Amino acid sequence: MSVLEKLRIYLVPGLVLQSVVIGGGYATGRELVEFFLDDGPLGGVLGIAVAGLVYAAAAAIAFELARVTRSYDYRRFCKQLLGRGWFLFEIAYLTLLLLVLSVVGSAAGEMASSIFGIPSVLGSSVFVVLIGVLTFFGSDAIAKVLASWSAVLYVTYFLLIAAAFVLLGDDIVASFQRSELGSDWWQSGITYAGYNLAVLPAILFSASRLSSRKETLTSGFIAGTLVVIPAILFYVALMGLYPAIGDAAVPASSLMSALQLGWLSVIFYVVVYGTLVETGAGLLHAVNERISSSYAERKKALPRYARPLIALSILAVSLYGASSIGIVDLIANGYSALTKVFLVIFALPLFTVGIWKICVARNS
What we know:
Layout: H1 3-25, H2 30-36, H3 40-69, H4 74-82, H5 86-116, H6 120-137, H7 139-178, H8 185-196, H9 213-238, H10 251-259, H11 262-297, H12 306-325, H13 327-363
Helix pairs in contact: 1-7, 1-9, 1-11, 3-8, 3-9, 3-13, 4-5, 5-6, 5-11, 5-12, 5-13, 6-11, 6-12, 7-9, 7-11, 8-13, 11-12
């Protein structure tokens, strides 16, 4: 096996996870502000690091459990994890799906409007079309696109933090020096990771090439690191506008306005827009794979044209919710409620039943 192939095996699951988490987790910056700003600049960084440790451990367990049980779609995986109660995850996942798509669809429309000066409705429509195209081509295409775009995203976030320190460096340093460390940063990290862990079963298709325990565990811990590095960079950059950034509906837009770098703003918005598309495609692909597995059990195949139709139908409902409720209320209320649900029905079973099943499989 070539070095390039080994890198692909270890890195692709983490890059796919990163792509899905960023779009639904912190692309707009609002999510980071909502969960971590009360803990202050340093507390926020520590909280995000804790979230990364939780991601890493959970991803390693999930990849290994999927490998030993050959469960690479969320329906099969959750049947292994939750038994007859697997449908509870599906109900919660579909609720999360609608919520995340509402947020990212709305954000995609606003970003397209900011970049090109077009109506936000048109920006959301392009978002829908791109997701439809990706879901049509299936697992291999989605995994390749998500992994490739993640590399572009990493370069963009490093440019962002460099520009922020050049132009807002004194403000960033002052924010860290004058603020107190909150006492709940570790709890914020665990809570933040709670709802994001729900996307793990959705990206297991990208881990199907992991063939040993060494590969699953290594890939899982790499995944946790890949997810949080851009989050920490982004959060530190936002601290150049602390504490006023807490009142911004879309903190990313406020930061771009403060930096006043037209070229970086365009690059950032285009890359984040693509990441929002990736998030939607990854989450909806999991639904398609779940339906496809049901067809396979009945010795049938899910028609290829049905994949984009299913995705577009769910997107239509989500975007209606975004226009009716609003992005700030969706994040503040929806994410908080679902976090508690996923901690109980997914995170807790994963770290107990999941580990037990892995040990049983190892002994046998």
